[in-house]
């Protein structure tokens, strides 16, 4: 039964975050809820002193001509707040119990938190970087990444031998080193977040769609970053880190031979694959987040898959999805469908590649 006298939970925080969009932050679940500016006005009256009908009447009095539409909109907004557990007396969503857990489930991506200490470790470096104008380190690291990728991949294709001819121990060493570079990739995200004063909540490993292992840092609080440029830099920080390391590995491959060069060549090949994946807009990658930010969109993938889920299960749309225009809804469904098909294709490709991977591993150890 709907709550008769709606009132926001006292611990909730209403802020203006990315692009000055109003947001409700729930510290219990660690979740940000986007609302419209009209919704922000309604929030100021949800104080437990009025019934639902009185709230509707209050806004209808300001615009009698649109009484039916206003009542529906206010009712839908109150329902969405209650469904999200934001009203006193409403049940908290399941994720409220998982905020402090090290093993969590979230959007088809179970994850394990390895450490929550990065903010403490990175703050001394972040403090030094905050002294500089933001465009200086961003421009420096961005330009260095482009040069690094260009030099590294040129070295891979023009200087090093064919990788299939040198398969062996260098492949195993390169795979181990790639894991280290992934840590640098994620730490770069965390460092930029620290500079922007939105520390990451943790670093760990996850299974994307339950089959693809990935490292991650939880930068949910990036919603608090108002500037679009700051959010794009945060999204691209890992790729910029990869670019610098690609240049370093390229120098090693160019200046050496034998085992060291072969190891560097395999590492460059892995970095090339990583760059292609990170720029893939059909996966929740850094490149996708940067494009989403530049387009002024928020959680497009989440809305796309939520729409598909409601469509396939024939469930009614939540208020925030029902409020989308028909054209926007169709675009999201098309994108979600293509992404889902691509993910299935990727899973199939990974399964088919297992025998080849095993054979490469056998060759690497000389069997």
TrEMBL record:
Top-level lineage group: Bacteria
UniProt KW keywords: Membrane, Transmembrane, Transmembrane helix
Keyword Transmembrane appears in the UniProt entry: yes
TM stretches of this protein: 135-159, 166-185, 191-211, 232-253, 333-354
Protein name, entry field: PqqD family peptide modification chaperone
Protein species of origin: Nonomuraea typhae
């Amino acid at each position: 039964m709907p709550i008769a006298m709606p009132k926001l939970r006292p611990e909730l925080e209403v802020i203006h975050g990315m692009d000055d969009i109003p947001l409700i932050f729930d510290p219990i679940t660690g979740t940000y809820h986007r609302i419209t500016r009209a919704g922000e006005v309604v929030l100021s009256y949800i104080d437990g002193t009025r019934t639902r009908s009185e709230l509707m009447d209050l806004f209808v009095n300001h615009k009698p001509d649109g009484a039916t539409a206003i009542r529906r909109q206010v009712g839908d907004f109150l329902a969405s707040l209650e469904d999200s557990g934001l009203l006193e007396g409403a049940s908290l969503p399941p994720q409220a119990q998982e905020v402090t857990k090290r093993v969590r489930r979230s959007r088809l991506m179970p994850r394990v938190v390895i450490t929550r200490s990065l903010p403490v470790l990175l703050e001394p470096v972040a403090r030094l970087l905050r002294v500089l104008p933001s465009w200086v380190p961003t421009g420096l690291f961005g330009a260095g990444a482009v040069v690094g990728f260009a030099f590294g991949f040129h070295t891979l294709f023009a200087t090093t031998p064919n990788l299939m001819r040198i398969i062996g121990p260098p492949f195993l060493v390169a795979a181990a080193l790639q894991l280290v570079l992934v840590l640098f990739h994620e730490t770069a995200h965390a460092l930029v977040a620290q500079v922007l004063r939105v520390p990451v909540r943790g670093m760990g490993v996850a299974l994307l769609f339950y089959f693809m292992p990935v490292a991650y840092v939880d930068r949910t609080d990036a919603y608090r970053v108002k500037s679009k440029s700051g959010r794009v830099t945060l999204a691209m920080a890992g790729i910029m880190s990869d670019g610098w390391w690609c240049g370093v590995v390229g120098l090693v491959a160019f200046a050496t031979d034998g085992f060291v060069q072969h190891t560097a060549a395999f590492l460059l090949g892995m970095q090339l694959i990583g760059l292609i994946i990170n720029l893939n807009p059909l996966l929740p990658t850094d490149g996708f987040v940067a494009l989403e930010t530049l387009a002024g969109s928020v959680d497009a993938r989440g809305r796309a898959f939520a729409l598909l889920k409601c469509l396939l299960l024939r469930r009614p749309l939540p208020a925030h999805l029902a409020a989308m225009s028909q054209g926007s809804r169709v675009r999201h469904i098309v994108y979600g469908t293509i992404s889902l098909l691509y993910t299935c294709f990727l899973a199939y490709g990974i399964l088919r590649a297992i025998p080849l991977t095993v054979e490469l591993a056998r060759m690497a150890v000389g069997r």
